[in-house]
From TrEMBL:
Pfam families tied to this protein: TPR_DOCK
GO cellular component: cytoplasm; plasma membrane
PANTHER family, per database record: DEDICATOR OF CYTOKINESIS, DEDICATOR OF CYTOKINESIS PROTEIN 2
Protein name (database record): Dedicator of cytokinesis protein 2
Occurrences of domain Dedicator of cytokinesis TPR repeats region (ranges): 1-136
GO molecular function: guanyl-nucleotide exchange factor activity; small GTPase binding
GO biological process terms on file: cell migration; myoblast fusion; small GTPase-mediated signal transduction
Length: 188
């Protein structure tokens, strides 16, 4: 097992699908349709490949926690529903790997909270993501009653943080200083 090779693969693949020139939702409707018809959405294809390769790591997955949490988060925040549905379960697998090794998933939890703040501040994330995140992780956890309550608490924590971060991002353009201050206090 060559850790550096796999690490390079994942980082390169995430860098590819998150590059600005592939963010189709930022294009005009005509340009979006033209690219979709000619090439399809390459992000989805590469995202599915990342997912498949993640599950092939077997016992070596633990080597990528917490280091790959940020890149995987960045990928799951791309506003493409099928990509999100296919890749958000990687988070549960990361949690499960760390839990099986240490009895908790604090490294994963700390990393995702840290990275989520950075990504939402950078303009990523939306209400739909929050709902998919909650439903997918809760559904995955149902199969593991031993950690269900831990996952449920984690999902609740992340959902609350994401709500506050999205509110904060929205009010930063608001003229009212009271709204901005209130939102800042809530976030803190």
């Amino acid at each position: 097992f060559n850790l550096q090779l796999w690490n390079n693969y994942f980082h390169l693949a995430v860098a590819f699908i998150t590059q600005d020139s592939l963010q189709l939702e930022n294009f005009s409707h005509a340009k979006y349709n033209k690219i979709q018809n000619k090439y399809g959405d390459m992000r989805r294809l590469i995202g599915f490949a990342i997912r498949d390769m993640w599950y092939k790591l077997g016992q070596n997955k633990i080597c990528f926690i917490p280091g790959m949490v940020g890149p995987i988060l960045e990928m799951t925040l791309i506003p493409e529903v099928e990509l999100r549905k296919a890749t958000i379960p990687i988070f549960f697998d990361m949690m499960l790997c760390e839990y099986q090794r240490t009895g908790e998933f604090k490294k994963f939890e700390n990393e995702i909270i840290l990275k989520l703040d950075h990504e939402v501040e950078g303009g990523r994330g939306d209400e739909q993501y929050m709902q998919l995140f909650e439903s997918i992780l809760t559904e995955c956890a149902c199969q593991y009653p031993g950690i269900f309550s831990l996952v449920e608490n984690f999902v609740s924590l992340v959902k609350g943080l994401l709500e506050k971060l999205l509110d904060y991002r929205t009010v930063m353009n608001d003229e009212s200083k009271d709204n901005r201050m209130s939102c800042t206090v809530n976030l803190l």
